[in-house]
Amino acid sequence: MKTLLKYFKGFEKETIIAPLFKMLEACFELFVPLVTARIIDIGIKSSDRRYILHQGILLVILGIVGLICSLTAQYFAAKAGMGVGANLRRDLYHHINTLDYEALDRTGTSTLITRITGDINTIQTGINLFLRLFMRAPFLVVGATIMAFFISPKVTMFFVIALALIGMTITIVMKWTMPRYKKVQEFLDQVVLHTSENYSGARVVRAFAREEDEYQEFAKVNDQLFLTQRKAGRVSGLLNPLTYAFANLGIVVIMIASADEVNIGGLGQGEVIALTNYMTQVLLALLIMANLIISVTRAFSSAARVSEVFALKPKMVEGERAVSEAVMEKSEAAVAFDHVSFTYHGQAKAALQDISFQAKRGSTIGVIGGTGSGKTTLVNLIERFYDVDCGQVLVGNTNVKEYTYHSLRALIGLVPQKAVLFTGTIRSNMQWRKPGASDEEIWAALKLAQAKEFVEKKTNQLAERVQAEGKNFSGGQRQRLTIARAFVGNPPVVILDDSASALDFATDKALRQGIKNHSHETTTFLVSQRVSTVRSADQILVLDNGLLVGKGTHEELFSTCQIYREICLSQLSKEEALTS
Ligand SMILES: Nc1ncnc2c1ncn2[C@@H]1O[C@H](COP(=O)(O)OP(=O)(O)OP(=O)(O)O)[C@@H](O)[C@H]1O
What we know:
The model has no long low-confidence stretch (mean pLDDT about 85). Helix content is about 65%, strand content about 10%. It folds into two domains: about 1-310, Up-down Bundle (ABC transporter transmembrane region fold), CATH 1.20.1560.10; about 325-580, P-loop containing nucleotide triphosphate hydrolases (Rossmann fold, 3-Layer(aba) Sandwich), CATH 3.40.50.300. The chain contains 22 helices and twelve strands. It is α/β, with parallel strands linked by helices. The radius of gyration is 36 Å and the shape is elongated. Bound molecules: adenosine-5'-triphosphate (ATP). Adenosine-5'-triphosphate binds next to α12. Pfam families: ABC_membrane (PF00664), ABC_tran (PF00005). It is found in: Cell membrane. Keywords: ATP-binding, Membrane, Nucleotide-binding, Transmembrane, Transmembrane helix. GO terms for molecular function: ATP binding.
């Protein structure tokens, strides 16, 4: 939590000015009942119109100055709240980007989104309210009591009793409702999680006709939220009537107690009105304080949730060496695995066990295996998305741990399983690997990825807009664009992780031919469950349950590796498998 305090740096002025001006406003407010009393006791009593006018003007001035103070406080409090919120959001976003995959896997994307949006908004509102009210409300309570004391110490006694009763009511109600409001926050999290999961997977939900089930699930969480909210709301709904009842009772007692004083001339009628006004001021201040405490508590729990994310530290330590393409040119093996084993966090079983192979520079490596056999995990280790538990992954003859992330990943063009594009244009998406890549380079990559033809048909060609997640392109088009993106700038290593699954057979074949002809310097990993995709690779790695059960060419493996043979025969006839 302490780490969040540093975000007030740069807003010291606002943090002081906002409460100060709110206090000034409260000071002016405290004089109002006193002036009103004087108008009644002096002006009206002696029918002194001039006096009434003067005091009336004083009231207006008090009101205007109070308003100016209030607006100033509002401005500075909002500035501090928004400023702290913006800086916090920026740093949290940056911090999340530095986290390794393991930390991201553990936390979950939805939670991270809620924390960077909802939680920071709550903190922002909390700061704004706190700066405006944390001094004003107690100041008004104490100030109004002192003012009342000056008018009549005897009547102030009843005033204090009513105050204690109101304070007690607020404390009891808050003690009961606060934990419920915390629960409300938790259920709200679940509603957000459910909604975001459901909407991001809307097409799948519809395709599987799961609308009703998803609706039921949502309704369940939503009902829990509603019931908890209602429970808390019912009790907190008592807050206002109960406190007003005590305040009004106090006013009645003050009136009765003051009556005798007025009769014997110890107290003016206006002073009695001033006392009741102070009572109302105190009541409002206490109610505001109760709301403030609720908002600040919420802000604290949000701050704790944000701090939790800041506390997540990447386990991986970034290396310092800058790997360059020259390093690759010198080494015979572009990528090598040396007895690599890896287990995902919290998993009992290793995803990869004792994997060793060498990918020669300029060669094509096919990676094949059933679902969950470890293919994606293997290529993720080349990019160092995770650190291996045993052994080492070498790129350009050097352990990937020694390189800076940026220089390592700049050498690799990755086409992930899920074709992800970003809002912008085709050109801006194509320039992700190589900022400022020329149109010529982009068209060459599009041609290789079999995407040139359909991009040429677009009205704006490279300037064609890409909507969020590339929704205005078909699945196959998106895949081809992500393949092209990986080839822009000719990286020495390209990884295609099952990224041609949405392509028809002819396009897939043309793509493989294009990759083969592309560059003799590019080492390409083709991850697939399709034999047709990997069969012409220079070396095929066969994975089964995290084990490397075969490596060699298609022909070698077909005759020596039982699992590869089974995969081939499940997709091709024996003749097809034997003829290239
Ligand atoms: N982020 C993760 N956290 C925990 N376990 C994981 C994670 N990703 C994958 N696994 C597990 O690791 C194993 C290998 O998964 P991987 O994604 O590498 O398989 P794959 O061969 O690429 O499968 P597919 O062809 O279906 O994509 C699987 O058992 C999977 O459940």
